[in-house]
Design brief:
homodimer; 199 residues; mainly alpha; Arc Repressor Mutant, subunit A; 2 domains; DNA-binding
Amino acid sequence: MAEKRRRRAATVEKVEQVLDATERIMLDEGYAAVSSRSVAGKVGINPPMVHYYVGSIDDLFVAVLRRRAEGIAAQLADALESDEPLRSWWQLAADPRGSALFIEFIAASNHRPALGKVLGEYAREVRKLQMERLEELLPLYGLDPIEFPPALVAAATQGLAFGLVADELGGHDTATAEARAAMDRLIDRLEARRKASTD
Amino acid sequence: MAEKRRRRAATVEKVEQVLDATERIMLDEGYAAVSSRSVAGKVGINPPMVHYYVGSIDDLFVAVLRRRAEGIAAQLADALESDEPLRSWWQLAADPRGSALFIEFIAASNHRPALGKVLGEYAREVRKLQMERLEELLPLYGLDPIEFPPALVAAATQGLAFGLVADELGGHDTATAEARAAMDRLIDRLEARRKASTD
DNA sequence: GGAGAAGTCGAACGGGCGTTTCAACTTCTG
DNA sequence: CAGAAGTTGAAACGCCCGTTCGACTTCTCC
């Protein structure tokens, strides 16, 4: 086995630029617009350099996903340990900036098995994190864990957030503002109940 | 203006075959695998014929969407008028066969504006249908329309269903069976409550 | 049965794609 | 300061794409 040759600092920086450009393209034009040429054009390099930096296009998507997923998982863990876990979690989930990229990843993973595998690992990790914490949390909110088990609450919350963001990004007018307002009020009530019960 | 000459019966049938093949490809390989050549290959015709039959590829996606959307909207209307509206609706929403295609459409619409427009019209129509019916229905289930307004219930139910189907199709193991079971039990309770209240 | 529309075919257009190759160049290291 | 390792540029590979075109066959209707 040949020992690894270390990259120069400038190269490491360029890799970050390539990942940034890829995210940007995914958000602006959809994941299908990502190609070695489009990414290279945005960064100001030649197409083959993209492959030199990150490998195949599959590897590129995986690298972007991993970088983002780590950040979001950390944010989620923080949110679930905050003063108002439900509210913090919801704010994170319902934020278009975070969710928009993942909608693209979900779509892209349908015909990029390598990406799907990584996305699956991440989805399982996030769901596990949510469920474990909800196990302790739900009783504090006055929710019966038999009637509303963590698996259901987690899936419904995330599904609702994704649905709202997807409709809003698509410009579909499906009363998302109304739903968001009602969800905010529901969270108000639940957080108040929790506060009362822990006093 | 020359009056339109009507298409031959065989052609009408071929158009249906083209739409069928497109659906099949979307489900099996993802929407990105749809091309005049792939569709033509599946049907056993030449690529230009696809354009002769349905026009551009955008038109092809729109035609497939419209055909399916009409069917699903009708099924939804039926479900919401059935004996157990909530259960029927949930069964329809949570059925992978129906939802899988729409996940592809949502993804494809991100970079096909023409498709996005039609999808938006359809999403609005479906949401409106759900909300109008829920307005009458929710009180019967013992749900306060102030606490749980139709917009929230509709978005959450649909979001949950899409999330579950997406995870299952992707093969991600995110406790979807647990969530489905809990949802079924919740619907059992709600339908029982409704039955009791209407007696 | 013949005019003309509907349908079919094969070839071709310009273009974008992922990726490889290879030679030239820079930068670091001993 | 030489040579190794890292980096860059240009060109090219084969492939698939949407779509158009013109010539052909088949059908329909008067």
